[in-house]
Design goal:
Blueprint lengths: L1 E4 L10 H8 L6 E4 L12 E8 L6 E3 L18 H10 L5 E8 L6 H15 L3
Parallel strand pairs: 1-2, 1-3, 3-5
Antiparallel strand pairs: 4-5
């Protein structure tokens, strides 16, 4: 099963998902570093995404796209992942979604977060 990892590796606050994707190994899961939402396999029965989110201090699981905050869109550049996911849902293209949200700032180590990610994935999809 694929875990699609988003972020900007050149911006420290937004690079954690891709950093962890490079380091983590969980049996039965492939961590795919993505540049944009067009890389998602929307036709998959279950879509798992890992990305940095604001306003949390812990690794968290989001299972409803409507939990994502909306941003005002000023240009095509401003279309973010959340916008695309909500659009896919509205069009009936999104079946089941899980987002593993990583904190921008936290007191937890990367190793602690990798353990939590592994726990979340194995609880959702026992091997």
């Amino acid at each position: 099963m694929k875990v699609y990892c988003f972020g900007n590796e050149f911006v420290k606050e937004d690079s954690l998902a891709k950093q962890i994707a490079h380091e983590i190994q969980v049996k039965g899961f492939e961590f795919v570093k993505c540049i944009g939402p067009d890389e998602l396999e929307i036709e998959a029965e279950t879509l798992i995404i890992m990305d940095v989110i604001k306003d949390t201090k812990n690794v968290m699981l989001i299972d409803d796209v409507d939990q994502l905050k909306e941003h005002n869109t000023c240009s095509c550049h401003d279309f973010d992942l959340g916008y695309h996911l909500k659009l896919y849902k509205e069009l009936g293209m999104l079946k089941k979604l899980y987002i593993i949200g990583l904190p921008m700032e936290t007191d937890f180590s990367v190793d602690d977060m990798k353990r939590k990610i592994k726990e979340i994935l194995l609880n959702l999809f026992p091997v």
